[in-house]
Design a protein that fits this description.
Length: about 325
């Protein structure tokens, strides 16, 4: 199977590319290698699979309409996993237009490429942030998600809506995956795990928002990749029980689905920090700060649909995942 992976030098994209190659697939990876964070980390991730005989890497931006059309026409991927996006909730408060270009315009080009080139299945990254102002826990794909709290979240919700129209109009199977706080080796420097680890090793205080009262459904990178693989292998199908009289937000009479991928076990932020302290053998000095604009206090994934359809549920504990991350961090950056 030839799979197009966007964001292939990114945290999840690189890990997924490795997994697809290990099982004998062919991967065409694209990434714009922007400087949202240190491009050297992207190059190091890419180096893990750049020389594989079944891997092709293209440095390009999804916002390039002509380039994306040529890519699909010449490379002819059978399936597509869209992981490229401008990430970060807080950054979206300062640079909203970068989210429009990448997460909306770029995603439109992906949909058009799939539509015109017979792609069998499009799997794309959504986010737990789409649940926004929802407070009923755990978050379910059957809940309405019309109240995002950041532009980042709004673009992810928009991706789900855009995909639905293509599934309905052109019978393109599409599946959106709402990732819940992905962490692990090779993650982004702007994510809490790297920021906390870096500060603690330097003897600096870590910034703890919402006075430490966050709970997050931390999901280890290998569990995310396993979920993506299982979903990719099974194209979305219409839900025969779907009714316009009582529309289910998680399915459709079109070949369109959304699923949560989370650990189904929210962990208090202070317990997460304690896991880092244990792995590093160092105590953290903490600067307690209020909830930041765009943030939500808690996330908690209902993964019952993932279990029912794919027989899969993430299971890596935070202590094990954080320990593996710290081992990688000390090896890559030094102690």
């Amino acid at each position: 199977m030839k799979v197009l992976v966007t964001g292939a030098a990114g945290f999840i994209g690189s890990a997924l590319s490795l997994r697809l190659l290990d099982r004998g697939g062919e991967v065409v990876g694209i990434d714009n290698h922007n400087d949202y964070y240190d491009p050297a980390l992207k190059e190091a991730r890419l180096a893990r699979h750049a020389d594989h005989p079944n891997y092709t890497h293209l440095r390009m931006d999804m916002a390039d309409r002509e380039g994306m059309a040529e890519l699909f026409a010449t490379r002819r991927p059978q399936r597509v996993v869209n992981l490229a996006a401008q990430a970060g909730v807080r950054y979206s408060l300062e640079n909203p237009l970068s989210y429009i270009d990448s997460n909306l315009v770029g995603f439109g080009h992906i949909l058009e490429g799939c539509r015109h080139n017979g792609v069998e299945h499009l799997v794309y990254a959504s986010s737990s942030s789409v649940y926004g102002a929802n407070t009923r826990m755990p978050f379910s794909v059957h809940d309405n998600v019309d109240h995002p709290l950041s532009l980042y979240a709004a673009t992810k919700k928009a991706n789900e809506l855009m995909a639905h129209t293509y599934s309905h109009l052109y019978e393109l199977p599409t599946t959106g995956l709402r990732f819940f706080t992905v962490y692990g080796p090779w993650d982004r420097p702007d994510m809490a795990l790297q920021k906390f680890t870096r500060a603690m090793l330097a003897g600096e205080a870590i910034q703890v928002f919402n006075y430490g009262n966050h709970r997050r459904d931390f999901t280890y990178i290998d569990d995310i990749v396993e979920g993506v693989i299982r979903v990719l292998d099974r194209p979305a199908e219409p839900d025969p029980a779907w009714s316009g009289d009582a529309p289910d937000p998680g399915s459709s009479r079109a070949p369109w689905r959304v699923y949560n991928i989370g650990n189904n076990n929210p962990v208090a932020l202070m317990d997460y920090i304690e896991a880092i302290e244990t792995a590093l053998g160092k105590k953290a000095a903490k600067e307690l700060l209020p909830l930041q604009p765009g943030d939500v206090p808690d996330t908690y994934a209902d993964v019952s649909e993932l279990v029912k359809v794919f027989g899969y549920k993430p299971s890596t504990s935070v202590r094990d995942g954080v320990s593996r991350f710290v081992d990688w961090y000390l090896g890559y950056y030094g102690g």
